[in-house]
Amino acid sequence: MNVLITGGAGYIGSHCSRYFLEKGVDVTILDDLSEGHREAVKGGELVVGDCGDGALLDRLFSEKSYDAVVHFAAFTSVGESVAEPRKYFHNNVENMLTLLNAAVDHHIGYFVFSSSAAVFGEPVSLPIREDHVLDPINPYGETKMIGERMLADYERAYGLHSCSFRYFNAAGDSEDSSIGESHHPETHLIPLVIQAALGKRPPLTVFGTDYDTRDGSCIRDYVHVEDLASAHYLGLRYIMEHNVSEQFNLGSETGFTVLEIIRAFEKVTGIAVPHTLGARRAGDPAMLVAGNEKAKRLLGWEPAKSDLETILTDAYHWEMKRTY
Ligand code: UFG
């Protein structure tokens, strides 16, 4: 099976690419390396380029017959999307449209899409199941919702079958520490906790302790990046077998507060996490927890590594050994 993986040098894309390679898939990675890392590519062919470059896509799709596209390439920072929506609509919507058009022009039948829990906005019921209303509260979430809607229309009109995954909080790193999370600047909680503990940055600020949660800090559902990788493989197999389109929420169905993450890291490693209690960050919902029954039932997916101890241990090892 030949698969084109856009953004395959990024955090989630690189773990997914490696998983597909291990399963014997012939992988071509298309990544402009604006956020991705050459060192994160552990096999297959790397094409350095833009997934919105129609001429490049025409060339790639003419040179080899692809069975599917797995689309990770996107900007992913909520705060930045509020400040610079044009950047997000250009990359996440316009470039995706170019990619979709190239895929249908070249008769590629299957598309796996990296969506986000951000499509739901403020939850009205928990855990958040797939049929929860889509009501994004920032441009990033809007771009992902538009991506899902384009896919629904492209299936109706052109027969392109797709699988969209709404990730909750992707976390952890490869067990062997050869690939991992590396954002510049880093804004995600778990790497910041670890870097603060190791003295690589100033004390962590806990964003808000007056939420209506068990200790006042925000609750999130952390899902191991290697579990996300297995879901993409199972999802692609599923839509190819059944010729359907589906959406899945990917999380562990368990929520932890920010303060619980800090305490869990201290327990796992014995290293104190210097932190201060600060004000809320704009746009943070109090609680996001995924319902994952659909992915378990239809795909046979198990979030096998998404317990907090495994996530924090793998993230800690990556931080100690990271090469990029
Ligand atoms: N947090 C802190 N201090 C920090 C950083 C984060 O207290 O220095 C808190 C946040 O307020 C939040 C939790 O830690 O409560 C997790 O924050 P992250 O920034 O790690 O992740 P988010 O939940 O904000 O965002 C994630 C993904 C987004 C996606 C979003 C969906 O990173 O791409 O979930 O809601 F859009």
Fold and architecture overview:
By secondary structure, the chain is an alpha/beta fold. The protein has two domains: 198 residues, Rossmann fold (3-Layer(aba) Sandwich); 102 residues, UDP-galactose 4-epimerase, domain 1 (Alpha-Beta Complex). 40% of the residues lie in helices and 17% in strands. The chain contains ten helices and 13 strands. The strands form four sheets. A seven-stranded parallel beta sheet has the order 3-2-1-4-5-6-11, sandwiched between helices. It has a two-stranded parallel ribbon with strand order 7-10. α1 links the parallel β1 and β2. The longest helix is centred in the N-terminal third of the chain and has 21 residues. Uridine-5'-diphosphate-4-deoxy-4-fluoro-alpha-D-galactose (UFG) binds next to α6 and β8.
The percent range for helix content is 25-40%
Q: CATH homologous superfamily of the largest domain - what is it?
A: NAD(P)-binding Rossmann-like Domain
Query: How many strand elements?
Result: 13
Number of helices: 10
As a percent range, the share of strand residues is 15-25%
Count of discrete domains:
2
Q: Average pLDDT across residues? A: 97
Strand order of the largest sheet: 3-2-1-4-5-6-11
Q: What class do helices, strands and sheet pairing give?
A: alpha/beta
CATH class of the largest domain: Alpha Beta
Order of helices and strands: EHEEHEHHEHEEHEEEHEEHEHH
- CA-CA gap between termini: 30 Å
Low-confidence region ranges:
none
